[in-house]
Amino acid sequence: MSKILIVAEHRDGKLNPAIAKCVHCASQINGAEIHIAVFSNEPSSVAADAARISGVAKVVTVIHPAHAHALASNIAPQLAEIAKGYSHVFGPSTTFGKDLMPRVAALLDAPQASDIMAVEGATRFRRPIYAGNAIVTVEVVAGTQLVATVRTASFEPAAVGATSAPIEDATFSAALPTHTRFVSISAARNDRPDLQTAKKVVSGGRALASADNFKILYQLADRMGAAVGASRAAVDAGYAPNDMQVGQTGKIIAPELYMTFGISGAVQHLTGIKDARTIVAINKDPEAPIFEVADFGLVGDLFQVVPELEKLLASNG
Amino acid sequence: MKRILVSIKRVIDYNVRIRVKPDGSGVVTDGVKMSINPFDEIALEEALRIKEKGLAEEILAVSIGPVDCQQQLRTALAMGADRAVHVQTDVAVESGCAAKLLLKLVEREQPVLAILGKQAIDDDCNQTGQMLAALWGRPQATFASKVEISGDRAQVTREVDAGLEVIEVDLPAVITTDLRLNEPRYVKLPDIMKAKKKPLETIEPSALGVTPVERLKAVKVDPPSMRSKGVMVKDVSELFSALRSKGLV
Fold it and tell me: Which of A253, A272, B210, B213 has a 20 to 30 Å separation from B109 between CA atoms?
């Protein structure tokens, strides 16, 4: 039988929505018993949220002052200790999970499958390679412990149940390493929905032509209650900050509505949005590859389209 | 000697359009341009800049794979690496195995830093650097967009989902590079000539006491499912109506 441990990502006392998606992924393995591990200096609210996710049988908390800031070098040795006896150890394919899980895999001497997008059985998974231009089906020898990161854009979140799973504390005597220290984090502004989890995303490309022009997208996004993203070209040109980059080397997202303005649609960008429910493309160039994947395409100048769209939104509230 | 170890992976060039073989056994590599993994090029560039600031004395480039990897190692030497080690093997090397091989070289060479690309653009695993750090029992600073060395410490700015995180690590440490850490230099012709005289050592995995094992078997490779093309609308009001009827605005 499969026994799956999922490591919780959280911040400011809130569980990252990616974890419910990891649970959904894990629950696709027949008869899996799913546990969640929470590493924190103050785990109670996060553990309570995790315990309510439908399909979770148990939550394990590890309390340590060093876990006030998630550092892979602190979490990995304890997670590897807890993970003994589990057939699978999952984390989200976010920068948190990408940083942490390989360190755990190495400590467990287990192979890792990164970015799993589909479950074909307890030992068989599908994952993207070559920036999503190919999909490989991988199989681990039965009986081998497997570490994996879950491509959250590929899974709906598991429901929140009415009942709570039991929460247990785990304790460790071994000292944590002191060779890695948190200094600071400069968070992106948070009065707008989070790009990774937003239902609607408005995204701009190089055609915006300046950081100042990006303001028209922020305005439109605020009107729509949307998050704002950018293409790699726009980020490289300095029109938008790094954490707004959507695509294979940036964020992989799956909103219900993704609207692009002046994005041509390079393969690496399309890889980041191909699970979006509805894609809208506005571009001056009728030959832009983005139109090949868009559900609705409009050939036009974004500097005319954006104000017009905003006016229609305002008058049709 | 203050040494930096940099790993160099040979991959299909960034600009090549990837084609999946009809029999599902992999992707087409015959007659396809091969290059240094772009993130590894950034890793080497960072190492060179650290050396140019006088904070390191020698850059060692390491590649694992078939004999053709030596082309990429020669390019690394032309960029400015001082010497190269080629761990020669024709079998597939998983991240875990690559980390074990690199660990053996780290133990032999005692670098102050190992700088790796955050991921290779072929298998997109994003694992080897973190695995090496774990096996070595040293810090990892992944997805670096800025590296500042002072004495026996490094302060690294990391690109994380929430923004930019700064951590401080004691050396030796592993750093993995993100896209915007630097822009790698171009190789000049005289440097290519000079690189031919730089030392390139070839070694078998068995000489390092590691046997590559395949633990995660690739069963088949498929092309991705394509989204179908939708409809073109003629103006903004038609677009608005379409989105309104789907309840999206």
Answer: B213
Q: Which residues of A touch B222 (CB under 8 A)?
A: 134-137
| Spatial contact of A147 and A89, defined as CB atoms under 8 Å apart | yes
Provide the b/e sequence for B125-136 (b: ≥16 CB within 10 Å). bbbbbbbbbbbb
Q: In 3-state terms, what secondary structure has residue A136?
A: strand
Catalogue all structural domains in chain A, each as residue range(s) with its CATH number: 3-170 (3.40.50.620), 200-315 (3.40.50.1220)
CB contact under 8 A, B161 and A312: no
pLDDT in tens, A66-108: 999 999 999 999 999 999 999 999 999 999 999 999 999 999 9
Query: Per residue in A100-112, pLDDT tens?
Result: 999 999 999 999 9
B34 contacts: CB under 8 Å, gap ≥ 6:
B10, B11, B12, B13, B68, B71, B72
Cβ-Cβ contacts under 8 Å, A305 against chain B: 236
CATH number of the domain to which B8 belongs: 3.40.50.620
Domain that holds residue B220: 3-245
ipTM: 0.94
B215·A124 Cβ contact <8 A:
no
Contacts of B237 in chain A (CB under 8 A): 312
